[in-house]
Design goal:
The complex is a heterodimer of chains A (375) and B (259).
Chain A: E1 4-7, H1 8-18, E2 23-26, H2 33-45, E3 49-52, H3 56-68, E4 73-77, H4 79-95, E5 99-105, H5 121-125, E6 136-138, H6 143-160, E7 163-169, H7 170-174, E8 176-179, E9 206-207, H8 214-234, E10 238-241, E11 248-251, H9 254-269, E12 274-279, E13 281-283, H10 287-294, E14 299-304, H11 310-318, E15 324-328, H12 337-349, H13 358-372
Parallel strand pairs in A: 2-3, 2-4, 4-5, 5-7, 6-7, 11-12, 11-14, 14-15
Antiparallel strand pairs in A: 1-8, 6-13, 10-12
Helix pairs in contact in A: 1-2, 1-6, 3-4, 9-12, 10-11
Chain B: H1 31-45, E1 51-55, H2 63-66, E2 70-73, H3 79-89, E3 94-100, H4 101-107, H5 109-117, E4 123-128, E5 131-132, E6 138-139, H6 158-161, H7 167-172, E7 177-184, H8 188-206, E8 211-217, H9 221-224, H10 228-242, E9 246-250, H11 252-255
Parallel strand pairs in B: 1-2, 1-3, 3-4, 4-8, 7-8
Antiparallel strand pairs in B: 5-6, 7-9
Helix pairs in contact in B: 1-8, 4-5
The chains are: A alpha/beta (375), B alpha/beta (259).
Chain lengths: 375, 259
Amino acid sequence: MAKELLKGNEAFAEAAVRAGVEGFFGYPITPASEFLEYMAKRMPALGRAFLQAESEIAAIHMVYGAACAGKRTLTATSGPGVSLMSEALSYIAGTEVPAVVVNVMRGGPGLGNIAPSQSDYNQMVKGGGHGDYYPIVLAPATVQEAIDYITLAFDLADKYLSLVYIVVDGNLGQMMEPAELPPMRELRKVPPEWAVSGAKDRDPNILTSIYIDPPDEEVTNIRLLKRWLEVEKNEIRYKEYELDDADIAVISFGVAGRVCLSAVKTAREEGVKVGLFRPITLAPFPRQAIEDLSKRVKRILVVEMNSGMMLQDVKQAVAGRVPIEYYGRMGGVTPFPEEVLDEIRRVNENDEEIPDGMERVQWLERLEERIARGE
Amino acid sequence: MAMEKVELNVVYERPESLTTTTTHYCPGCTHGTAHRLVAEVLDEMGIREKAIGVAPVGCSVFAYDYFNHDFVEAAHGRAPAMATGIKRVRPENTVYTYQGDGDLASIGMAEIIHAAIRGENITVIFINNAIYGMTGGQMAPTTLPGMKTTSSPLGRDVEVSGYPIRMAEMLSTIDGASYVVRQSLHDAAHIRKSKKAIRRAFEVQEHGLGFAIVELLSSCPTNWGITPAEALHFVRDKMVPYFPLDDYKVIPEVAKLKV
């Protein structure tokens, strides 16, 4: 199939359709609503289930039901929606059924705004719902990657009976760029053996997240953790750019990573030995790869569109081997490549130690100066 | 001595739709009766093998242990949403929820109303015993005025906590609802009527006629602090007057169904 000019949210929705989604349940929220609107047309035309629920709470419990029924299913929302969905996400994890959630992140906390942000990193990566579970989190940076990883998300969800989150931001959801959609996959003809589909010629299937006897719950927790360790072993994904001879590694995900890539390329033209490490799986986090990277470079610059959430994971992986600096924009502000370029130039000149915890203090000082200059 | 030939007919047996598991329900609780009625109906309609039940959070949280067909366990109050998800991707299956009053009429109020609004083709069995049973007898949205519970120790004060909600009446005002009835489990005659209502509610789904709910007034002797017999009398004398038994909504297509 040839490349077409595709709008982010619509392309993501079509990718889900082609991955074999049989049930979409959603609730309007900016900046994810185009996903819902696209599915409203597309799913009924294919004879598949589409429903606009009364709330995000109901939408995700419908996803939970469809997942238990053994059908590929997903919802698309934004951070405030994920907050409401957290209840069912925990139940889905506890029931060990596959489901996919797309979070088109916006500025927060609270009602916040509808501008692109990465402030749901902790919400998505560190859980959100109650209990002991680990969702897989994929962070594409282009429309094409989002298409590819949505397809991958369903395969991972099925393989590991897991929740898979796709985190993008309003930039990606709203932008148009050339991308290629995969061919339409055939729908599953026979339900998975664990699914509720009617107990004909077999014992009843019971799908639940309740284990009233603590030892039974512990066995479940062990099973979930072992599955997660398999995910950590097999599914870590990241991309590296110009890192072979780099003294400085910029670490950044999603659209922020894309902004950083522009800055890295310009800095390279200026002769700065800088490269980019872009995690694709935020969970499992590419800890080992970053540890290895920290043994090769002299300095690391983490760039995010939040207050430094992934920064904490990077710090854990780097374990003080090299100084880490931070630069971020918050509240729905997307950094310009020039801002990141300034940071790369500054980091290139800086050989001071950064005491633990000071990376954000120093960043805030620089950020406030920048804001005061009207940038 | 010649043996007289006697023809034996089975007049009572365990429905195939029930397992042999002993329930955890308290003596005198009417959940067991309600379970049996649902199971008998599934058997009689021959739909056990395509039935998918959705259990609530509450005393019937373990309903899936007692029914011999596919079951899922929903979060508190969300059973109608979960049932919707299942039914929309598996319209060929028979999907029903089994919910208590705290589950359906308090935390799950939005989910049940919107399932009715959509005319969701599911069946809802609603057990109203005017109390939160599993958590130890707290005030429910259906607790009668003046009724003492662990969270209304002086009796439900309507000035503070408002009045009990009559779910059947409210749901009957919704265009999407096709069959809305309230029955009671306090004596044999009403149990028979309850079964008939449950049968019709499942027939509604089998005929694709939309949303059907059967509210069943039930007893909770343990948390009401009275004997099982007194509890049934309480249902008859106190609950039925507040929650009148009636067919609140029967659309013409449902009325035509032979049950």
